[in-house]
Amino acid sequence: MKVLEGQLSIQGKKIAIVAGRFNSLITKQLIEGARDGLVRSGVSEEDITLAWVPGAYEIPLIAKKFAEKSDIDAVICLGAVIRGATAHFEYVAGEVAKGVSRVGLESGKPVMFGVLTVDTIEQALERAGTKAGNNGFAAAMGVVEMLSLIDEII
């Protein structure tokens, strides 16, 4: 049996990060985690492009625009949707997840979902670099592994 696994090191790849400005206290930490992970894995700072969008709901459209560009190899989507006392959370979280997934499938490029969907600001902070690690870093590692795996397959 031949087993293919992506490595955690890549060079020469161009990565776009799309980040929701809403809850930017959290998102900025996710971005830094993603940047750190990419650079540690061999991606040059000059090969990382960051685009801010108003909130999480707008992420899929800009992710799609980046995925359509021939000079972008992968997209990392970062943001934070925090449950409140309204149904807003379910609508936004669900639509963002579906949209990001659709962009990846339609483009054939890795499009990582690094949008936190949490109940409280404390949970968001935990996932943005405190107790539970940094989901931005995890999303970057996912992109690196997927790009490496795609290179093995092709």
Automatic annotation (TrEMBL):
<dbReference type="InterPro" id="IPR036467">
    <property type="entry name" value="LS/RS_sf"/>
</dbReference>
<dbReference type="InterPro" id="IPR002180">
    <property type="entry name" value="LS/RS"/>
</dbReference>
<keyword id="KW-0686">Riboflavin biosynthesis</keyword>
<comment type="subunit">
    <text>Forms an icosahedral capsid composed of 60 subunits, arranged as a dodecamer of pentamers.</text>
</comment>
<comment type="similarity">
    <text>Belongs to the DMRL synthase family.</text>
</comment>
<dbReference type="GO" id="GO:0009231">
    <property type="term" value="P:riboflavin biosynthetic process"/>
</dbReference>
<comment type="pathway">
    <text>Cofactor biosynthesis; riboflavin biosynthesis; riboflavin from 2-hydroxy-3-oxobutyl phosphate and 5-amino-6-(D-ribitylamino)uracil: step 1/2.</text>
</comment>
<feature type="binding site">
    <location>
        <begin position="80"/>
        <end position="82"/>
    </location>
    <ligand>
        <name>5-amino-6-(D-ribitylamino)uracil</name>
    </ligand>
</feature>
<feature type="binding site">
    <location>
        <position position="113"/>
    </location>
    <ligand>
        <name>5-amino-6-(D-ribitylamino)uracil</name>
    </ligand>
</feature>
<dbReference type="GO" id="GO:0000906">
    <property type="term" value="F:6,7-dimethyl-8-ribityllumazine synthase activity"/>
</dbReference>
<dbReference type="Pfam" id="PF00885">
    <property type="entry name" value="DMRL_synthase"/>
</dbReference>
<feature type="binding site">
    <location>
        <begin position="56"/>
        <end position="58"/>
    </location>
    <ligand>
        <name>5-amino-6-(D-ribitylamino)uracil</name>
    </ligand>
</feature>
<feature type="binding site">
    <location>
        <position position="127"/>
    </location>
    <ligand>
        <name>(2S)-2-hydroxy-3-oxobutyl phosphate</name>
    </ligand>
</feature>
<feature type="binding site">
    <location>
        <begin position="85"/>
        <end position="86"/>
    </location>
    <ligand>
        <name>(2S)-2-hydroxy-3-oxobutyl phosphate</name>
    </ligand>
</feature>
<feature type="binding site">
    <location>
        <position position="22"/>
    </location>
    <ligand>
        <name>5-amino-6-(D-ribitylamino)uracil</name>
    </ligand>
</feature>
<comment type="function">
    <text>Catalyzes the formation of 6,7-dimethyl-8-ribityllumazine by condensation of 5-amino-6-(D-ribitylamino)uracil with 3,4-dihydroxy-2-butanone 4-phosphate. This is the penultimate step in the biosynthesis of riboflavin.</text>
</comment>
<protein>
    <recommendedName>
        <fullName>6,7-dimethyl-8-ribityllumazine synthase</fullName>
        <ecNumber>2.5.1.78</ecNumber>
    </recommendedName>
</protein>
<keyword id="KW-0808">Transferase</keyword>
<dbReference type="InterPro" id="IPR034964">
    <property type="entry name" value="LS"/>
</dbReference>
<feature type="active site" description="Proton donor">
    <location>
        <position position="88"/>
    </location>
</feature>
<dbReference type="GO" id="GO:0009349">
    <property type="term" value="C:riboflavin synthase complex"/>
</dbReference>
<dbReference type="GO" id="GO:0005829">
    <property type="term" value="C:cytosol"/>
</dbReference>
